[in-house]
Amino acid sequence: MNISPASLNAVTPANVTVAKDYCPRLLLVDDEPRLLSSLYELLRDRDYELITATNGAEALAQLTRVKFDLILLDLRLPDMSGHEIMDFINTRGIEGDIIVMSGDVGIEAAIGALKRGAYDYLRKPYSREELLKTVENALQKRRLANDNSRITSQLENSERMYRSLVDSSPDIIYTLNHEGRITFVNDRVQQLLGFSREELIGKHYSVLVHEEDLERARYAFNDRRGEERASRNVELRLKSNLGSGIERTFSNTLMTISLNAIGMHVPEQEVKQEVFGTYGVARDITDRKRAEEVISYQAYHDILTDLPNRMLFKDRLGLAVIQAKRKLTELAVMFVDLDRFKLVNDTLGHVKGDELLQQVAQRLKDCLRRGDTLARQGGDEFTIVLPELRDRQDAKAIADKFLESLHRPFDLDGHEVHISASIGIAIYPGDGETIDELLRHADIAMYQVKALGKNGHSFYHNSMLDVSHQKIALEQSLRKALELNELEMYYQPQIDMATGRIIGAEGLMRWNHPQRGLLSAGEFLPFAEENGLMLPISDWMLGALCRDMLLWNAAGGDNIRLSLNLSPQYLDRGDFFEKMRGALTRYGISPAQIEVEITENICIRNPQYAIEQLNKLCQLGVSVAIDDFGTGYSSLSYLHRFPIHTIKIDQSFVKEIHDENGHYPVILAIISIARGLGLHLVAEGVETDVQARYLQTNGCTTMQGYLYHRPLSLATFIDVLNEQNRRNAQAGAHGLHAVPSANAAPPMIAIQA
């Protein structure tokens, strides 16, 4: 049908028929009854007809049977995904707009929904106002689209309905003459751009187009192919005459539109057909473009810290390497790992841990130069690229700034937290010429700092690679150590100062490495924790300790109590209690001889679960000791809540004693707490007579350390027990009695994994 400009004025809005009292029908699909009920209650008073479905099958049945204006669809359903339901709707040509609701933080779900034609994508949890506004906008859009469709149908019967059609359209409809001047534009231009029809008629289209898009506009409007009708799609930004804040879409002075331009021709009876002008439809896609920008941004940025993520960091590092190669300059790659972050996370919870990461990210950003890139690698790890270094001192200076800024305490809602960082540095091109080499070598340098005590920085050196390979080899051989029976328990005796007798011992795990010799627990257990080997090693330890107890019970040590030092991973296992009870039954060991030793940080990870597990052990007859008391973040309330019988003074406090007449308030406080709660007390790491006399004078009478005995193998430890029993027997034969102190605890062995 040929449309003449004169006919555009032949119809008035009075010809438009608008349906009244229409009640939109909505389908609510969610498999969580609470969320579905909440959604239903939120919408029920808004003149909507609401129908619900709790799974995909119900939703498909409703869509097949009933027509819906709007579907609110959860992506995760028990029997099928929301994407499959959208595919069903598209395949069957079922009408109705779709608003997707999902708790999925990945961008793939959002992109998949938008590609399938979703009107909008709401991430759970969404706000009440956001949902209501999105639903109303979708229904408003659908009402406009329905009006447009209905008027289009009327237009087929009568050209007089044309003005009603274009004026009620949600899009800007216009015509241009062959010079590019506007000959017609509908009323929608007033609502979307703030220009009246009278202002634009007769003006060139360039008055509306943003300057940067003018060349593209000229190509779209002027390039015509030889066919009877030539069309072209182009996206243009149009200027807006609206003030900011009136409409969200036009909060800025520019807007993006999708433009479809179709050539208009003179009637066919003319001898020569020439382009008469242009008929165009401009559709506002600002919201869609912004949604695409948000999705694209989130694909390359960390949502928590708003820093570049690993993908974007590699892109920028790749560009920096290319530039450094071209200019023959150096650049630095840093790998930053926070020290003690896991402890803070376990102590204060993940919410506070996230707040700490956000504050750390801001402090690190403040230390950087313009042009440097800081990214979050994942967890508590950050990476930095420093382009165009003058020398290595530039990288060292920034690393020092990092450490200094992190040294200041962090305030997490009243909790003062102290952390530090281990920083590895690799320099291009000396330490690597590719992205992967630089990152790997910076990571190796960072772990070197960790191994040397943390809280520092180190430049990569080739010798570190040998150490890294040794660690990998250590991990591999540790997996075989259990099979080859290379692990062994050693025991460090504990002394009752009142009698001088051995009343217990702390068990220390050792590894008889075939090449490196005897390794202490600190040299291999961290690898076991990182690589999921703590559970089988702890299972082995349970059996080894029970077998050892049978031997020392036969040597006269049947009154010795065994304290088992638990790994947090082992305590979290639901079958720990059953394994303990089964081992004691299998070897005939009395539960009264067992004391489970925990660190105070275990108490804070999951307090209620830990209390339940420890209470079950106490009911069985096993007692509980708390190790390294005062070195973590726990409060004194845990001593009341947990079934604790023994406190161990950590050697870090004991080694500070240099004067037996001095004042050491932390140790005195721990002794006072133990005395006030009626708990037994053991001091670890006693190495000098001064330390022993100070502790004994102030009320601690059970000690262990190099002053008395180093860790002993099982055979040597049993020999020591036999010698002690022989001396006691000789003393009895001469009428002497080795009477233990009234305050002395039952003999105890503490086993540390």
Give a short summary of the structure:
The chain is an alpha/beta fold and 753 residues long.
Which labels suit this protein?
Rossmann fold; 11-stranded mixed β-sheet; 5-stranded parallel β-sheet; Beta-Lactamase; 44% helix; Alpha-Beta Plaits; disordered N terminus; alpha/beta; elongated
Topology:
Elements: E1 25-29, H1 33-43, E2 49-53, H2 56-65, E3 70-74, H3 82-92, E4 97-102, H4 107-115, E5 120-123, H5 128-157, H6 162-167, E6 172-177, E7 182-185, H7 188-193, H8 197-200, H9 214-222, E8 231-239, E9 254-265, E10 275-284, H10 286-300, H11 310-327, E11 330-339, H12 341-348, H13 350-366, E12 373-378, E13 381-389, H14 392-407, E14 410-412, E15 415-417, E16 420-428, H15 435-451, E17 456-459, H16 462-481, E18 487-496, E19 501-513, E20 517-520, H17 521-530, H18 534-557, E21 561-565, H19 568-571, H20 576-587, E22 594-599, H21 600-605, H22 607-620, E23 623-629, H23 637-641, E24 646-649, H24 651-654, H25 665-677, E25 680-683, H26 689-697, E26 702-704, E27 712-713, H27 714-733, E28 748-752
Parallel strand pairs: 1-2, 1-3, 3-4, 4-5, 16-17, 19-28, 21-22, 21-28, 22-23, 23-24, 24-25
Antiparallel strand pairs: 6-7, 6-10, 8-9, 9-10, 11-13, 11-16, 12-13, 14-15, 18-19, 18-26, 18-27, 19-20
Helix pairs in contact: 2-3, 12-13, 18-20, 18-27
